[in-house]
Amino acid sequence: MDDPLEERLRKLAAEYHEPPETPREEMWEKISAARREQRKVLPLRRAAGPTFRRPLRWAAGIAAVLALGIGVGRLTVRQAPAPIAPPVAAMPTSPLVNAAAYRMATTEHLGQSEAFLTLFKASVKGQRDERLASATARQLLATNRLLLDSPAADDRSTKLLLQDLELVLAEIAQLSPASQSHDRDLITQGLEQGGVLSRLRTAVPAGTSPTRGAL
Amino acid sequence: MSEVRFIEALKPRSRVEERELIRRVLAGDPGAERTMYETQVDRVFRLVYRMAGDQDRAQDYTQETFIRAFNRLAEFRGEAALSTWLGSIAISVTLNGLRKVRRSNEREVALDDVMPAAPSAREADPDLKKRMAQAIDALPDGYRAVFVMHDVEGYTHEEIASSLGVHPGTSKAQLFRARARLREALADFAKD
Predict the structure, then answer these.
(1) Degrees, nearest 5: CA angle A139-A110-A68
(2) What pLDDT, on the 0 to 100 scale, is given for residue B135?
(3) Which residue of B has its CA nearest to A160?
(4) In chain B, what are the domains?
């Protein structure tokens, strides 16, 4: 930022939404009141049972997504009737099962995202209409956030990839029919600079067909 | 002792002191909670205010940031500084809050009112400061957050990357694009 405009910009930027003095006491009163309320409620919750609800909720969510996927797959693929198997007792969800379910859901999501971004990039190059792009990006963004927030997300490189993907999807989600081609070009430039697409391709195992029914 | 010097005296001098402060907060020491608040609130409020541009919202988001931080303090692993961790919560709370405001405004305001004004000649809009603020407001959330944090509040790319959960390279790229857009929006002023 060396030219005169940059210097002027910098000075003007310093005045952007210039904060007043921090209302410390006023905010602290509200924070401490909220904390007091929470302390009243928390002991009751603790007494109600152990606090492993969150992982269970996530496991249930991922299991529901997988079940839905399997259900859709069975509806769309015709198969010979399978012999009736005796009922099997339900197994309790273990951390290993959670991790496997998470990996499957992540691979599925990354595959869908890769296919979507490839199509998006092609549509920008071909000057074609990508009105559906922002709607699809929003759907993928929701799944992306679920995967990022999951307690099973312990692999650092996957997490970083999901975080970078989130930014790209958020940018596409904000596109509107009124957006300028410049905005789309910036997104594709960002895709290339961050290597998101190539990292997605590396992360998705060859031979998976994640796009079926997704886009 | 002045208020500023008093707060400076409270600030943890090292990561070890910071960890000790966090340990005390987790142990339920209300004095430690207050100390943590006092030492961090200015930085959080400044950032939130810059993003929200409104006193009431900035207060709400700052309060929510601290309430969430106290609730989730046990999850803080100390990989980044406490201030960076708080910054990430503040940005998340603020951007989510602003999105909700935007959605509700979109429902209420007539289309004519939300359509951006066509770029006008400089004579018609001489207020560069106002134009600058409008141009920053018009940036996508991600660009605006990086621009405000780096160019306005002086965060480093490493701090921004930790706060936003991205690579420092992504932060640099976002800043580059944000500056490009601002330069473009204020191009008619550059002709002097």
Answers:
(1) 60
(2) 92
(3) B166
(4) 1-115 (1.10.1740.10), 116-192 (1.10.10.10)
C-alpha distance from A22 to closest chain B C-alpha (Å) = 6
Convert the pLDDT of each residue in A60-78 to its tens digit.
667 777 776 666 666 655 5
Mean pLDDT throughout B123-150?
85
B151: amino acid identity, one letter: D
What pLDDT digit, counting tens, does each position of A9-58 carry?
888 888 899 999 999 999 999 999 998 888 776 555 555 444 444 555 66
Structural contact between residues B53 and B47, judged by C-beta atoms closer than 8 angstroms = no
Does A31 sit within 8 Å of B67, measured CB to CB?
A: yes
Query: Can you give the pTM of this predicted structure?
Result: 0.54
Using DSSP's 3-state secondary structure scheme, residue A21 falls into coil
As given in the structure block, the two tokens for residue B83 are 């201030």
Please state, in angstroms and rounded to a whole number, the distance separating the CA atoms of residues B25 and A32: 13
Residues B9, B18: Cα–Cα separation, whole Å = 13
A101-145 pLDDT tens trace:
888 888 888 888 888 888 777 777 665 555 667 788 888 888 888
- The tokens for B132 are 């600058």
Report the interhelical angle of B128-137 vs B168-185 (nearest 10°).
140
CA pair distance A4, A7, nearest whole angstrom: 5
| Token representation of residue B180 | 């490009």
Output the six-digit token pair for A79: 């198969």
Number of cross-chain residue pairs from A and B with Cβ atoms under 8 Å apart = 106
Q: At what angle do helices A181-194 and A156-173 cross, to 10 degrees?
A: 170
